[in-house]
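Let us work through a complete example step by step.
Step 1: write down the sequence.
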Amino acid sequence: MNLKSANRWQNILLFGGFVIGMVGIAVLDNLYIAILGLAMMAMSIVVWWMYHRCPYCHEQLGRGNPKRCPKCGASFEEIAESGKIGCAECYNVFRDR
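Step 2: predict the structure and record it as tokens.
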């Protein structure tokens, strides 16, 4: 699963779980449906935790300067030392350095 589809699933689980939980409590007065909604919302956290981190350094994606390229695992220091770029994604990851 790539980051874009992970974002989509996270939003579906989070907002879908909220709607199902509210309908379960407010409309149907059913605790089991409300718990199902809470479980869906909890699964959105699992999706975030699994797919919004670098597979090499486990740094949260989209914040700060990444330590390693999420595709090939090369660090900026390794690229600067060897003078060779790791992969095409390295250009995007380390563009500001």
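Step 3: interpret the result. The radius of gyration is 19 Å.
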